[in-house]
Every structure is written in C-alpha cells, then in structure tokens.
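#onboarding

Welcome to the new folks! Below is a worked example of what a typical request in this channel looks like: someone posts a single protein sequence, and someone else replies with the predicted structure as tokens. Don't worry about understanding the tokens yet, we'll cover that in week two.

Example request:
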Amino acid sequence: MFYISALALGSCLATMAIGVFLAIKIFKIPDITTDGSFTLGAAVTAVALQAAVPVWCVIPLVLLAGAAAGFLTAFIHTRLKIDALLAGILVMTALFSVNLGIMGRSNIPLINETHLFSTENGIPQAYKPVVIGTVLVLILIVLLFGFLLTDFGIAMRASGDSATMSEANGVNNSTMKQVGLAISNSFTALAGFLVTQYQGFADVNMGVGIVITALGSVLLGDALISFLGIRNMALQLVCVVLGCWVFQLVLALALSLGVNPIFLKGITAVMVLLIVAFTRFKSKSYAN
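Example response:
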C-alpha cells in the first residue's frame, strides 16, 4: 500500500516537476516561487470546491492563479532587475499572506466535498489518483510539446539558450521569461490542485519545502535523460515524470523500513544532495 500511495502522490506532483523542469531547462532559473504557487493552487481549489464550483471549472482558476504568481516573479526579475532567486523568494513570502487571505484560516478540510477523486468512474478508489493524475500529466505533456514546437515556443527556448543571440533576432527576452515562468507556476499550482484532493484538505503550510521535492524529481529525471541520451523534449518530460515517481517510491521505501516520519524532510534534503553530488561526479568523470 505504501507504494500505491507513493505512485499516487508522484502522479499528483508530476505537473510541478514538469513546471520546475521548464524553468531550469529553458531559463536556468531554480524558481523558489514554487513553494508559494503550490499552496496557492491548493487554496484556490479548497475554497472553490467548498463554494460548490464544479471540479473541472476549478482547473482554469488554478492555472490562472499559478500563472499570475509566476508572471509576478518574472516581472520583478526582468523589469526591476532583481536577481531571479531573490524575486522568487519575495513572491513566495508574499504568497503566504495571499494564501491565508484566500483560505480565511490555516486549514480547510474537504471531507464532505465532491472532488476529482471522489466521483464514481469505474476506477478502484486506491488507483484513482494514479490513473487520473497520469492521464492529466500525459495530456499536459502533449499540449506543452505542441506549444514548444510553435514559433513562440522555439523563440522561448532560443531565449533561454542564448539571450544575446535571440535578442539580436528580435526576441523580447523579458516577455519570454514572463510567459515561461507563468506556464511553469501554473503547472505547479495544478499540482496543488491534485494534492489537495488526494489528501482531502488544504493547509497554508503544505508548500513549505516542496521545491526540494520538485528539484529532486527533476534531477532524477535529468540523470535518466543523460543516461539514455534523450534529445526529444516530449520524452524528456516523460523522464521527469518517471523521476517524480522514483523519488516518491524511495521515500515510501524509507517509511516502510520504519523511518520516523518526522525525519522525512531531512531524508528528502539528503536525497537531493546525493543526487546532485552523483550527477556532478559523473559529469566530471566524463570530462576527464
């Protein structure tokens, strides 16, 4: 059961991993806004579901809320010339108050609310988050891959690869970062939407440290991408999803071996450190 729960949580968090992967892969920005936009998606979801908004109508609200958070971070970075890391920290800090204001209290239970994983659709209850989360992620991968093949998507990728060259070709790098981080954080907010319904409540502190989980998933996916030599963007996004699942399975294994849950955040940090150290060591070995 531990492993089914791990796969379920991995499926719910996969959209966040994809969002962080975009920010890092295209713009080389480790976006700290993630902690705040994840909770923002959860807060909007909980309040909307309590107001009896149909669950499929909640998705665009969540995407818009996350996009606004990402756009604000990029705007502060590009227009006010503040370092991207600091801009993310500022927005993340401000979002704590925003999320608390949206929720009106620190915790909102969804025990009696109809949501994505409570509806009858013929899928066994234990497997609903895995199946529904995976289908949603695959749809997003197809849509995102199609977007990245458009002229605008290619210009965005070019902007991240070489800002000077893309600007010389008439690309507005500031606009590209604003759109890119808006998309990235809308995906992160969508993860908050899924996790809230999976665990049955939204909490104002649920996003604390979640960026570490996202980075660990992305690094595992990136290691798989490097090992297999994958160049196709769609397959790279699939690898990130696999990285998210593996990350959650390892944490589930630690819990099943009797590790105290209070040490889970510490284990997560150590895992990310080991993954980073391993990838750096491997890259040095290849260089020599």
